[in-house]
Amino acid sequence: MRDVGRTGTRTVAVIGAGLVGLACARALQRTGHVVTLIDPEDPGSGASAGNAGLIAGSAVVPEASRETLLALPRLLLSNDSPVSLRITHFPRLVPFLWHFAKACRTSRFDELSRAMAQLSLNGFDRWMALLDDLPEARALFRRDGCLYLYLSEDEHLNAKKDNDVRRARGMPLTELSDADVRALLPDIGVTTAGGILAQSAGHVVEPRALGDLLFRHFVADGGRFQQRKIARLERVDHRVPAVHTTDGDQIAANVFVLAAGAYSRPLAAQVEARVPLATQRGYHVMVRDPDVSVPMPLLVPGAGLAVTPMRNGLRFAGLVEFDRLDAAPNPARTRQIKQCAVHLFPRLAVDNAETWMGCRPSLPDGVPIIDRAPGAANVFLAFGHGQMGLTQAAITGEAIAAIVEGDAPPVDLSPYRVTRFGRSENLHHAA
Length: 431
Ligand SMILES: Cc1cc2nc3c(=O)[nH]c(=O)nc-3n(C[C@H](O)[C@H](O)[C@H](O)COP(=O)(O)OP(=O)(O)OC[C@H]3O[C@@H](n4cnc5c(N)ncnc54)[C@H](O)[C@@H]3O)c2cc1C
Description:
This protein is an alpha/beta fold. It has a domain at 66-93 and 143-202 and 277-362: D-Amino Acid Oxidase, Chain A, domain 2, CATH 3.30.9. Helices cover 33% and strands 23% of the residues. The protein contains 14 helices and 21 strands. Strands 4, 6, 7, 8, 15, 16, 17, 18 and 19 form a 9-stranded mixed beta sheet that branches. The protein has a 6-stranded mixed beta sheet with strand order 10-2-1-14-21-20, with helices on one face. A 3-stranded antiparallel beta sheet has the order 3-9-5. Strand 11 and strand 12 (242-245) form a beta hairpin. Mean pLDDT is 94; it is low at 1-5 and 424-431.
């Protein structure tokens, strides 16, 4: 570790200790700053704990597209769809949907795909670089590829365009027949329409352990932790000298990084960053000691699920549910995942499987905000990673450390500017 940053040692407070906040904190600490992490919960216990674990290099296909927009009414109305919406939540979603519709313009597709690729294609390597002094954490990563499973000919045919985009971005993909799929997955109980193997994809065998290890080493190297919730950012002359906790205390620092995931919107608004951040809630079902062989992660696009072999079991994770951040988990979603699990692998016993729900921090165009706050020169924003926060956390940390230092960031950050959503004052109803 360097002793001091290029601009001298500064005190930095990172609000939110999910994987994005932890990666920012670690990168800033390695740059030589004195860093405090602030979170009311245990570090790494939010969306970052229960995700599918994929370091999804193949995430270069924007969700916002003409095809998704046309399919959305059907997806939202059908019972067994991977996408659902609580109808009473609709008014709060209007700003998100408005910007989503704008992002679906054909002219934006290539631009958004490039913006995703910049952060995703090197996701694995950027993690390895951030963890170069933590072999224990590196040992949680695998690079076994990822198998896209198509359950019907239509699905496989419809995926052709997405797979052409992946190939155009330089990803090696191998077409597999149903017989090839069966050779890899001897316990599969359905006839597939074949699959695609994305060789360069990786995964983490226990995302929660990654958060724990990052946090433990952050503290061992002098990092501080305040188990508090931030209620307010105080602003004086275009700067934030301190943030206020919900229990009436203040935490002062030279620099602040806002990385509170799906909960960032009200805090961001206090530094003139009004953003249509919503949450797409997702679920997982974790089967301990599964009696089936799954040698690599699977993606089942038709079901909206990933199936990931983890250190402590087989995890079925995914679905998109538009609802309030604080609404109780919906048991119908975990039933839906269990049904799909048994459909794919009839031998699986899912009755006693663990279930989990978490809130993705979602922006309408599917790329995060990595930027300086418009209303405070010493506040930096790192949130909105949606479906890709595990993949993109390390490079986000690297980028934030660079812009705090005044150094050139590892990639062009213009696609992640907060101002891309305009300065609309009408966004305060977003979820
Ligand atoms: C089912 C599912 C599957 C997924 N699969 C993948 C995958 O395979 N690959 C991938 O790359 N991504 C995946 N994701 C997405 C990924 O998990 C998220 O993008 C990522 O975890 C977001 O990290 P974060 O640090 O921004 O948010 P979080 O992990 O949610 O952390 C935010 C933190 O901020 C804290 N906080 C909130 N409010 C305050 C406040 N006022 N003051 C202080 N702290 C506060 C919270 O307590 C929390 O700890 C998946 C997500 C889900 C739900």
